[in-house]
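FORM 7B: Structural annotation worksheet

SECTION A. Query
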Amino acid sequence: MHAGGTRPRRAADMKKDVRILLVGEPRVGKTSLIMSLVSEEFPEEVPPRAEEITIPADVTPERVPTHIVDYSEAEQSDEQLHQEISQANVICIVYAVNNKHSIDKVTSRWIPLINERTDKDSRLPLILVGNKSDLVEYSSMETILPIMNQYTEIETCVECSAKNLKNISELFYYAQKAVLHPTGPLYCPEEKEMKPACIKALTRIFKISDQDNDGTLNDAELNFFQRICFNTPLAPQALEDVKNVVRKHISDGVADSGLTLKGFLFLHTLFIQRGRHETTWTVLRRFGYDDDLDLTPEYLFPLLKIPPDCTTELNHHAYLFLQSTFDKHDLDRDCALSPDELKDLFKVFPYIPWGPDVNNTVCTNEKGWITYQGFLSQWTLTTYLDVQRCLEYLGYLGYSILTEQESQASALTITRDKKIDLQKKQTQRNVFRCNVIGMKNCGKSGVLQALLGRNLVRQKKIRDDHKSYYAINTVYVYGQEKYLLMHDISESEFLTEAEIICDVVCLVYDVSNPKSFEYCARIFKQHFMDSRIPCLIIAAKSDLHEVKQEYSISPTDFCRKHKMPPPQAFTCNTADAPSKDIFVKLTTMAMYPEDHYRDRLSRGTGSTDRIENLRKIWVFLKTAFHARLRCMCTCNRCTFCICQNFLNSDLLQSVKNKIFTAVLNRLRARVAEWGAMLLADDEGSITHQVHAVSSVEDSIFMESSHGPLFLEARHVTQADLKSSTFWLRASFGATVFAVLGFAMYKALLKQR
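SECTION B. Predicted structure
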């Protein structure tokens, strides 16, 4: 495992530039070192102080702009010196190897002065520079080594010569390296071991890289790690050499031909001790760490713009990643995460993100452990309610690294504006929010828990401090899997704007409490009577004795007056899981709010059941190709997309119009025949038949998005209606066969 290649660095990986300050006693050669570096020759005349030099990024080995600043005691004040120290990223203390006084000043003056001007917890890295090595035949290292051992902020010592150009470029390379790859946060020289923060960061990196969670990095995992960090794979022999080095030094560093955590940490300790700490820093920065070994905000919270009236959902790739994460930690393969398995999953987090309320927000098994469906549901809820937290959590799990994406933002889908959905009368969203409103103790929490399949017996086992105001689960609507997110709204006189925003409203009242319905009616009139948000009234605790509600009209009459569906009886007091019919109805209303709004306008015509059945048939045909499969693409190539485009095409709309025109003309012809036959009778009969034609014309309605076909012929006899229905069915069947044939033709043509 080595830095065999150089990975292109992101903007947040490193500092934008490096500022190097040279200090020391007068006449030790500070200015000469700078001028020799720039001109690549020793200057004959040396000014008192060199101007600030900027080295472009494309010239430096680390591709970072570097500023070199000289200090002259003769030309600068102490205040200017202090200012330069505060601006520097690294300081080179220059001494002359042939001048013992300048060496003594390193510890008596310069190091204490620098430390006074910097925070104790963030010491500036120091480089000791022994200049004028060309004037002596001995080394000053014996004198300098005790100083280096005494002061841990000293990164290294370099002996050089400005006159002979010896080690000049190396000096500034080490200075730049001390800033970009500092040793201080990684390693403690006194203890000769890595610091706890570094061990913690590398342990998280190891657990993320251990994709099968067996406690070792096998050859495939090591190669993947090498490629994402250094952009180059390791040859099989190189992998074996790495393992042999580990085996030679520690006994349990390799197990079952895989590198253990101890072996992984040993390798990085070895890199640091051998002066190759840039290798460790490359790994740390690739996994999102900054110089203080904290995950950077840029890594955890990538930029994400969400327009108003749009929601956030996980996309297909995110669900696949979460599925693999679940499988990785479900060691006993029981499709549920035990407390120990969940704790192991969260070891890559700095804290436990889920509290006990989560177990009452999503589905669990009989033991109360979060199931696979519950796991995905909780992530879906977090994405919908708090997308920034979702990005943070995905960052801890290493989503962008393991999926090789730019950031966690690639895991999200931002839905289009809800107003566009209403205009187009169709939605691409998969998560729908239902606000549950009612008086305290009316049964709202029971409705939420029923969504998770829990009856009253299971609900009574929930502790008060573990209750949740949210519940989320999947619901199938016409073969499509959708998420229904229910939110228990606390009782109050007026709802806030945030409490009104939702896709569907569930108004709950207790049939055994005479004062319960009044609150629902009042909230409906205040906030939803003139709204296009669909509402459904739930008559909770229907197993109890129903009492008359203390309101001006009954709940049934209230619903009829406001053209709403009748109250839905509901109870959690069942032997098995409560019925899910109301949740399907709520999700359907959320998916098709315009249908519900039209139903409210047209309710009472006596044709509701017929309209609903026709709409269900049409929607089912539109989704039949997609039953139990969630099409997450917009490729316009798959069978579903071809059918979807064809169903919305002008050609099909034209065919549908012609079919209905033919049906209407046939009805007109039949009425004309009746008129001729009854001409001898009274004139009122003819008027009655002509009125039937007008009624038929007014009642035929076609909606192209969802396809509900509204047919009413209130004054046509039963026999006539049957005859018309026959031709309608025949025409409708022909259209369906045409759609199927066209889809199969396109699919076969695409395969060829």
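SECTION C. Observations
The CA atoms of residues 16 and 482 lie 46 Å apart. The chain is about 45% helix and 15% strand.

SECTION D. Sign-off
Analyst initials: ____
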